[in-house]
Amino acid sequence: QVQLVESGGGSVQAGGSLKLSCAASGYTNKMGWFRQAPGKEREGVGGVDNWGALIYADSVKGRFTIWKDNTWNTLYLQMSSLQPEDTAMYYCAADSNRRSSLSRLREAEFDYWGLGTQVTVSS
After folding, report:
1. Which tens digits make up the pLDDT trace of 22-78?
2. At residue 79, what are phi and psi to the nearest 5 degrees?
3. Which of 54, 59, 83, 98 has CA 20 to 30 A from 15's CA?
């Protein structure tokens, strides 16, 4: 069982930046960020795996950057040029299957989930 703890959420004005972190309690392979806005379904933001895969949702390409530090089992999400439509609860997800690889940003790709951190962007 892997526990995930997100941090770094907060409130910013449009055009601002935030950096989220997700610390894992054990080994992880695939890790990703998802978000859920009020009244909407949870959607993938981006993900990585230990084989080099890196996937972004079209809505965040060029604005968000994801990277993973395997030394500290931590996933990061640097968000820039934030817009009000980026307002959501952001969740970290992970799996620990060493043989798997990330091909799509789907919830089913991940076994473990954090409790989320809120990001609010005001206009």
Report:
1. 999 999 999 999 999 999 999 999 999 999 999 999 999 999 999 999 888 999 999
2. -115, 125
3. 54
CA–CA separation, 25 vs 42, rounded Å?
24
Residue 81 has a CB neighbour count (10 Å cut-off) of 13
For residue 93, what are the β-bridge partners?
Answer: 32, 113
Question: Looking at the DSSP assignment, which residues form a beta bridge with residue 67?
Answer: 76
Q: Tokens standing for 95?
A: 């799996």
Closest-CA residue to 82 (of 65, 57, 60): 60
Give me the residue label for tokens 């951190």: 117
Residue pair 118/9 in contact (Cβ under 8 Å)? The answer is yes
Supply 86's token pair: 């980026």
